[in-house]
Design goal:
With 115 residues, the chain is an all-beta fold. The N and C termini lie far apart (40 Å). The protein is globular. It contains no helices and eleven strands. A hairpin with a 4-residue loop joins strand 5 and strand 6.
Length: 115
Amino acid sequence: QVQLVESGGGLVQAGGSLRLSCAASGSIFTPNTMGWYRQAPGKQRELVATIHSGGNINSADSVKGRFTISRDNAKNTVSLQMNSLKPEDTGVYYCRFTDWGSMYWGQGTQVTVSS
């Protein structure tokens, strides 16, 4: 089992910045992938960005150039620096951890961007 603890959500005006962090603990094996997904009200959960323990990054076109994902393999943490936030970035952001076919989700953290 892997436990994920997220932090860093909040309310920000459009154009502002937030930083999300997620710490994984438990039975962690490498290679693995950590990342962020988000879900807006009435919409399906969607990819924001993921980063493999080897460094490969996958991100949604809508956040490229504005969001930066990074990780610390020694600490089993992943962070998402979100700049130039837009109202459409509003939603619950979930941390996800995957390895060898197992998948774990964090409890989610709310990000609200006001116009």
